[in-house]
Structures are given as structure tokens and as C-alpha cells.
User: Fold these one by one.
Assistant:
Number 1:
Amino acid sequence: MAWLDKIKGRKKNESAENEAAATEKVITEPEAASNEEMTEDISSEAEEKRKRGWLDKIRNSLSKTRRNLTDKIEGLVKRTGDIDDDFWEELEDILIQADVGVKTTLELIKNIRSRVKKEGIKEAREVIALLRAEVEAMLAANETETVPAGKPHVILVVGVNGAGKTTSIAKMANKYKNEKQKVLLAAADTYRAAAIDQLQTWADRAGVELIKHNEGSDPGAVVFDAIAAAKARKNDILIIDTAGRLQNKTNLMKEISKVKKIIERELPENQSEVLLVLDAATGQNAISQARLFQEATGISGIILTKLDGTAKGGIVLAIADELKLPVKYVGVGETMDDLREFSSAVFAEALFGE
Ligand SMILES: Nc1nc2c(ncn2[C@@H]2O[C@H](COP(=O)(O)OP(=O)(O)OP(=O)(O)O)[C@@H](O)[C@H]2O)c(=O)[nH]1
Ligand SMILES: [Mg+2]
């Protein structure tokens, strides 16, 4: 506990100072300054703890991917003498098998090879550090901070059937609520009654309100009503659930783009977000799904779910490299607390760290 030690250390110094001051009756300002420092130490310690918790959670959820990717690279490095063509080929195979994707793998290998050459690296082990740095840089290239502009800030959540939209919405609602934001949900997945009920259950659990119509009603009408309600109730955030869509059904894509147009028409000044939910376990198919949604609605970021159950976590890299989209959140389990904001540094450490 670095901060505790610091406080203890300071207390020791303070008591020595107090003894000295007993005769002189001096000071208060330096103490005031050290109190401020102490508060800073405590809050940076809390931040440190939060980051460590995040790292542990991500590392755990990446355990299958680590076995499939990191452990294999470790094995390769251990049995490699000189870095030769065979080494690069094997590394390539491992990355491709972990769903990093062919294009992204070749890009990574090219960058690492050129650094190995330039920096005169001979030890295969050092390649791991280079890979980690390249992975982090690749992920960081698309990272953006979302600064909600205008109220309500609308988050339209799209994605194919079963990707994890409704669950992720519940998790986001919970997160924003904990941040003291006034959240409203909209059940624009009107395709099945069960979908509306499922969102209602999550809304109740998170303690947020929901706008819903009957099964089979027009999703556009739900969204129109939800925006009006959010304006009237002065909600900070409006999160819209949509039906699971099969990407080859053009009519369903049209419906989603209609919903997007309603948001733009009703809130022309606000910058709404469109978050595409992708199931990490779908591997490379996630890329083709994203392209279709990108055409229909545009996408501002990705929620990558079910990272906890898959060995295909390498898909994160293909998303960053091929789609040039930021991964905003990752889903690491089924409970309300199992959604984490994505950080390239934490992800790279969770994957390649000791
Ligand atoms: N392990 C794990 N399961 C998840 C995660 N996210 C969602 N799920 C599970 O995936 C299943 C489908 O999630 P939903 O949220 O209903 O998916 P959806 O995209 O809304 O599905 P449709 O409404 O049918 O289009 C549920 O059983 C969730 O509990 C995750 O991050 N990890
Ligand atoms: Mg759903």
C-alpha cells in the first residue's frame, strides 16, 4: 500500500515536527499542503486499484485466448534458436489461428520484422515485447473518447441475433446510472414480445425507465416516443435496443437505417452514437457483419461481447486494423457488472503481460 506507507511516513515526520513545534508553535500551511497531497495519493491509489481490477478481469476473460495465442508464442520462442524464416512463419500461423486475420497478421509481422532488423534483435524472446507494443499501437490508433454532446445523448445499439445487445444495454444503463446519469431505455426490438419483456426485466434491475410499445409495432414509432419522453424527462442518456438482424435481410437493414434517420431528424444537433455489438466467438464473420451495419447506419464503435468464453480474442486486432473502428466496451460475463471500457494498454498487458 504505497499511499498508506506514505501517510505513515508522513505521520512519523509530522510527530517529529510536532515535537519541535511544541516550543515554537509554528506552521499550518505546509500541513495543509501535505493534506492535499495525501488526498491525491489516496485517489491515485484508488485509480490504481480500479485499473488492477480491470486488468485482472480482462486477463481472466482472456484465459482461453491466452492459451491459444500467448502460450503458443511462448512455446515457439522457447524452442527457437535463431530468428529465421521458419520462426516468422510459425508466428504467422499462431496469429491467424487466434483470429487475428490474415491481413492484420501480415501487417503485424511486417512491422515487427522491420524493427527486429533495424534494432539488431537476435533473441526470439524480445519479439514478444515488440508484438505487445505493435498490438497496443494498432488498438490505440482508433481509440476515441466519447464526449456526449447535447441531451439526451442517444446510443443506438445494433447487431445480429444473440450477439449480446440487450445484455450490454443493461450493463451500460447500470454503469451510467452509477455515474449519476439519468438513463432512459427504448425497446425498439418489437419483433418478439420476449425481447421487450427481457429489456423490462433488465431495466427494473438497473432501476431505469423504459419506453415500450406492443410486439409487432413500428420500431420507428417507439424511438420517436422515446426521444420525446427523454426530452420531456430531461434524460442524459437514451439507449435504444433493436432487433437481432440477419445481415442478408435487406429489409431489416432498411428498418435500422430508418430508426437512425428518425434520431437524426428529432435531435439534429446531437451527436448520437451507433454501437455495433459483436460476439467475439464469431471470429472473422464479425468483420463481414460490421461492414454491412457500417453501410446501413454507420458505426461509431464496437461492443465486443463474450470475450470470456472464446479463444478467438485476436479478433479485436482485426477489428481495429480492418474496420478502423474503436472497440468501446468488452463484455466479460453475463452479470450487470461484466462490461468494461476498452483500453488498448490494458488489453495488451492482459494478453502479453506476465
Ligand atoms: N459469457 C457471456 N455471455 C454474454 C455476454 N453478453 C451477452 N451474453 C449472453 O448472450 C446471450 C444473448 O444475449 P442478448 O443480450 O439477449 O443478445 P441480443 O443481441 O439482444 O439477442 P437478440 O435480442 O435475440 O437479437 C445471453 O444469454 C447473454 O447472457 C458476455 O459478455 N459474456
Ligand atoms: Mg435482444
Note: Residues 159, 161-167, 189, 195, 244, 277, 305-306, 308-309, 331-334, 338 surround guanosine-5'-triphosphate (ligand 1) (CB under 6 Å).
Number 2:
Amino acid sequence: MIDQNAPIWNDLHSAGNDADKWLRHLLEEDGDFQENMEILAEDLSHQLSYYSATAYVLPHLAALCPRLSLEEKLFLIAQMGAAVAAESEWPLSPDTEAYREFLEGLEGLRRETKSLIADPHTAALLKDAPELGQQFALSALAILGDRKHAYGLYLLSAYCWEEGHAACACGWNDELLPLTEQPDCLKPTVINPWDGESLEEEAVWFQGLLALAQDEELTPILPLVYGTGVCPECGKREPYWTWLERFMQEY
Ligand SMILES: [Zn+2]
């Protein structure tokens, strides 16, 4: 963790270039927790971009968690998923201070997220706050699961998860594949029910967390996004995630 007075903070970027200020407010309990947290998270995930301040902020947030109430911890984790997921689009180079900070922060947030998932009070809180529940599930995906998957779903949130991007290596692509209409080119997978504990299978626990929040937006399309695409042009079969990733890189 890099001290907040270290000179590096002057060179770190965020959308408003003031992540250090909002982090300080949070750590010194200066002002409303949720408001400070929201501004900081927006500062680090505006337009789903990656900002250099993120890696340096994460270890401080992880260290703050043990001082927070369960509600506050849930809120913090739910807010930070997009900033964490964005790193998958702009990957940090290993052997850099930024990468070490990112990993240290991520390790801490993983610990906190796992303990929240294991806490029986979490389910009750998420049930009462569906929007927070959906945000928490997406953040858990970014923190505990595949960051690229989470990034793709944050991107598709702009389409309310009704449409998805897809691209095959042969050149076929569709910017607005109608996911809610179960298009012929996507074969759904079967996602088993979650036991409420295991974090082995991403699709299973992610769907389970969304179920806690009684989500009806993302849940219907999960069998497709974890399913298989069959290219309408060349017939090649690939995971839908590969189609989405290729579209994001090439179009
Ligand atoms: Zn094809």
C-alpha cells in the first residue's frame, strides 16, 4: 500500500483527477460515506475506462473494509466492480508497482467479498435492495471471477442486457444481437442451482447472487452469455464470451 502522501499520487489519473481527495474523505470519515464512495467509484470508472489511480486506491479501500458495517462494505464492493473490470481492457504490465498495488488491493477485496457472500445477513440485505444486489453480483464477478466477463456485462448494461455484441473470426458480426429473443445462433447452456457457498463454477454462483437480489434483467440472458455461438456464416462454434471479446477488440 502506497502512503497517501507519496509523490506518486500527483501523477495518478482519474476522471476528475481527484481520486486522492475522495479517498482521503473516506478514510478520515469526512462527509457521507455513500456519497464519498459513489464519487470515488465514478472517478475511477467513468465511461468504463481504466484510470491509473485505481491500482493505488484499491489497497486503501481493502484496508478500510474491516472498519465498516456490513451495509457499508456491501456498498463499497458493489461500487468498485466496474473500475476493477476495466483493468482487463487495459491490462497492467507485470513487474510494475501499479500491478503489485492492483493485486494487493484485489486480494483484499476478494477476502471481503467472500466473507460477505458467506454472511447470512447479506442475502437479507440484497433482497431488500434489488439494485444494490445486481451491482454487488456484477462486482463480485469482477473481483472473484473473470474480469473480462464482468467488463462485457458492464458494457452491455447500456443496452439493458437486451442486446449483445458478437463477432466471428470469419468477419460476420452483429452489434445488436437480440439476446432476449433467444437468437438461433446462440445455444443456451444449463446453469445449475447454487448451493449458496461454492465459488467453483462462475455461472452458478453469479446466477445465485443475482437470484438473491431477485434480478430479472440479467438472469434471463445468462444461459446465452455462458452458452455457445454458432456462426450464421461459417458455422464455427465458440463460447459467446469469445464472440463478445472479439467484437470489443475489433469493432
Ligand atoms: Zn464465422
Note: The two ends are 37 Å apart (CA to CA).
